[in-house]
Write the structure tokens for this entry.
Amino acid sequence: MLIKTLVIVAFVAIVASLGSALFQLVKHKDHANSEKTLKALTLRIGLSIALFIFVVIAVATGLIEPTGLGTKIH
């Protein structure tokens, strides 16, 4: 249950960062806020990569088991 909670929190943080970047991009169009947009998008990419690595490690160590399409190979 802890792993699912961490994944959900990471997804929420990724979406919040993306929303922040969109807000900065649409609302403020000057150079100072373009740096804020860049920082928000960089944070989103970092969080996405960290989440991907976490999920790969969790599957490899058996903390989570993949389900769905392609899990049963005959």
